[in-house]
Specification:
Helices cover about 40% and strands about 20% of the residues. By secondary structure, the chain is α/β, with parallel strands linked by helices. The chain is globular.
Length: about 500
């Protein structure tokens, strides 16, 4: 599809809006109108007193057009023009498809954070009115924002200006899932890299700990993710976590999470190692409890193996277990998703994260054209609504939310938890509450100004072989941590 953006610079938001309806299509952005079968045109025409915002759409032989005007003297003129043009384009898509996104023209990844800010400025009723009338967000999604806002604020209030969290990346998996775009390597191809990777990861942790200590930072949460951290051996897991305990002040830590993730990597020996190292929360992530769907997404385990891994963790004393699910997976149906929900409820985890399938460019689903049916968005929407209903009925309530691009149905990812079992790190990273010091391949350190909102990022090399061969350059980048805190002053 062609997106012609004429006399304006709103192409970023308008392209994301087009992807709500065409998540699997390549969109070519141009700055002049042209003849094409599938084309969206977004034109700004500034007159003497008013500006006309016109959107037209030609799609699959159908046509639609909407326009509106904005006064040239309007307050926040540029933003108002962008919102108005996006609204007209959304109406065009609605005329042709008969579907309007539950998130309206809102394309940002942190809707609850925006809702919180608007509430702080003008009150919750005004925030809800802006979401509904200006952004065209549905009442159901507004209610979801209210619920997650409440959960997130209870957690962010625990953070102090000197607080930080530690992220540890283990970018290895037993195999690559077809929907995955993370920089992770199958153990079959990268096994020889793991010993050196672990050695250098521990070295980076030691150096990072020195920066934390010298700048007076207070560690709140530790999160080991990936990839699948439990692709490491029990001994390697203990080596990494022992380094964390040796180098960081763990006396203030509220939560230590390890993504056990793939059930086919979980063994009693590894779980005992995690237990010995004081891990307080783990994730066991089946994504679905239907074997045919597991096969379709490239998983090498069964639903029963996921169940067995969960029960083993319970037997060994883990009392805070999360399970991840994905709505909209290839070959999954509303009925089979409900079967997954039923099995998860029977296992009784402390928290459940429900993701909507995101069609990332680097995922095998996209590169191999193994695309779900374009109607899957409606099915996925029914899935996530049912998940919220059933989980809430079982007192597993929403507490954080974020969104991704190219998500089927333009849906969201929501974390649900029983009271007292919310994952603090998930909120801190999504809300950007405080600094995240990150170690390992593809990890991104986020430095947040202690008493302000400025954020700066330090990127580690993505691939394990780059991480290993360019480790000294990576460590040199981390000197910016010291410079950042010298620049932005006192923590208290």
């Amino acid at each position: 599809m062609i997106l012609a953006v004429i006399n304006n610079k709103f192409n970023y938001e308008l392209e994301k809006l087009c992807r709500i309806y065409l998540p699997f299509e390549k969109i070519e952005v141009v700055d002049t109108e042209c003849d094409a079968d599938n084309i969206a045109v977004a034109r700004l025409s500034k007159g003497e007193k008013d500006t006309t915002l016109l959107a037209s759409l030609s799609l699959d032989g159908k046509r639609a057009m909407h326009e509106s005007t904005v006064s040239n003297d309007a307050e926040d003129y540029e933003n108002l023009c962008e919102l108005t043009l996006a609204t007209q384009l959304l109406y065009c898509f609605y005329d042709i498809t008969g579907y309007i996104s539950p998130w309206g023209i809102l394309t940002g990844v942190r809707p609850a954070k925006l809702f919180s800010r608007l509430t702080a400025e003008n009150g919750e009723d005004a925030a809800a009115e802006y979401f509904r009338d200006t952004l065209l967000v549905s009442n159901k999604k507004i209610e979801l924002c209210k619920k997650t806002k409440k959960g997130e604020e209870a957690i962010t209030s625990l953070s102090k200006p000197e607080s930080f969290s530690l992220y540890i990346s283990v970018p290895f998996c037993p195999s690559r899932c077809t929907y995955c775009s993370f920089v992770s390597h199958s153990v079959e191809h990268a096994k020889k890299l793991i010993p050196q990777y672990v050695e250098l990861l521990c070295k980076e942790l030691r150096i990072t700990a020195e920066y934390a200590k010298s700048n007076g930072l207070r560690l709140e949460t530790v999160y080991m993710g990936g990839g699948t951290p439990t692709t490491l051996s029990a001994e390697q897991l203990k080596t990494v976590l022992s380094t964390v305990y040796e180098c960081f002040d763990m006396s203030t830590v509220r939560e230590l999470t390890v993504e056990a993730g793939r059930p086919d990597t979980i063994t009693e020996e590894k779980l005992l190692a995690l237990k010995e190292m004081g891990v307080t929360r783990i994730s066991i992530n089946p994504q679905t409890m239907n074997d045919s769907v597991l096969k379709a997404i490239g998983r090498r385990h069964t639903a029963n193996e996921a169940k067995d891994a969960f029960l083993l963790a319970r037997k060994l004393g883990f009392d805070n277990i999360n399970m991840d699910l994905i709505a909209g997976l290839p070959s999954d149906t509303y009925e089979s998703f409900n079967n997954t929900l039923s099995q998860i409820i029977n296992l009784n985890p402390e928290s459940v994260t429900v993701h909507a399938l995101s069609m990332k460019r680097a995922a095998t689903l996209s590169t191999g054209n193994i695309l779900p049916d374009t109607n899957v968005g409606l099915d996925a929407s029914n899935m996530v609504e049912t998940a919220e209903k059933i989980l809430s009925e079982n007192k597993i309530l929403p507490y954080y939310m974020y969104r991704q691009s190219k998500t089927v149905g333009n849906l969201e990812n929501v974390g649900y938890a029983k009271s007292g079992y919310e994952c603090l790190y998930n909120v801190y990273i999504m809300d950007e509450t405080h600094t995240i010091l990150a170690c390992g391949a593809s990890a991104v350190t986020k430095l947040r100004q202690p008493n302000g909102n400025y954020i700066e990022r330090i990127f580690n090399y993505k691939y394990p072989y780059e991480y290993i061969t360019r480790f000294d350059e990576l460590i040199d980048r981390k000197k910016r941590i010291k410079e950042f805190y010298e620049t932005y002053g006192e923590l208290r």
